């Protein structure tokens, strides 16, 4: 545990991480409250839930990659604190939102601010932490994102039960305001080489800058394969993610049991992130670690799918244990991806490259649920999950020989960067 928190000894990174923690919490704290408002208060149909999901994800696909060109030109500090204070105001406006149409607009703008904040944060990490502490810094960042996806909705639900349906929006706004003050106390977050690059960009065209990010990804095989494989795995996961409630019924869980199943996945993701951060030896061969994780997570998914098909029978604790393993292995694999993204990308391009990576993953996550639901209606949820697991195993096995050949190259690149 001490190894993971070492980057927090560096003052600038400590402020950045604290702000990210509050930002990640704010991204998910209102999740339960918004869906409760749509379903229980306004009693709207599934069509509006789909529209809400699109409003949440669309900015990450369409806005992020293009706006990131300006994120790389502008002060990352300014981008982060401006986006954070806007989200604070939007969170407060949710208290008074009168209808679904205005709600969708607010959610769209709030997600757009998040899509701008994230690439700025990615670029800020390397400017606030020393190179030797970068793997642990990436681990902490990933741990914040993974844990808040679980903790945020849970806290939001608790606040609704105790203080009322608008309380998550108030707490969320307070968190964003505190994060803004933390971000204002950061240094300028610009290296000398980056300042020179920005000064030369006055006469360059937008598309030239945008294509530089794509060109960097295209000509860096390690980065390219990690982005594509992560997006593919995200697509596979979200084929069945929204159908887990039906899987839980097939496994014999009731409503409370479904909550336990989701909590097991969430707890596994948090502890998996901690474990990977505690043993950072994977940084020598991060792609190999990712590939191996795919094989193990695919195997776990396949076994759970067989349980949904009634081919495997077992007590509920077995399925909870497998759900925990699935979360732990899956979350652990995301940290090496974050490390590759940071170590293989110049600071001046971090906004563009990280936005392309994020948009690729988000696009996969947006289109997968509809495809998964259509397939599940034909073959069943259990069969779908078993197939998803088998495909994940196949991808991992397919990538092993390629990654083994790349291993020596990655070692050389890492040594040259002094990591």
TrEMBL record:
Chain segments annotated as transmembrane: 21-42, 48-67, 79-109, 154-184, 221-240, 260-280, 287-306, 318-341, 378-404
Heme recorded as keyword: no
PROSITE patterns attached to this UniProt entry: MFS
Main localization of the protein described in the UniProt heading: membrane
A Pfam family the protein falls into: MFS_1
Localization terms from the record: Cell membrane
Keywords: Cell membrane, Membrane, Transmembrane, Transmembrane helix, Transport
Record has Metal-binding as a keyword: no
Membrane topology listed for this record: Multi-pass membrane protein
Highest taxon, organism lineage: Bacteria
Major facilitator superfamily (MFS) profile domain sequence ranges: 222-419
Name used for this protein in its record: MFS transporter
Provenance organism: Bacillus salitolerans
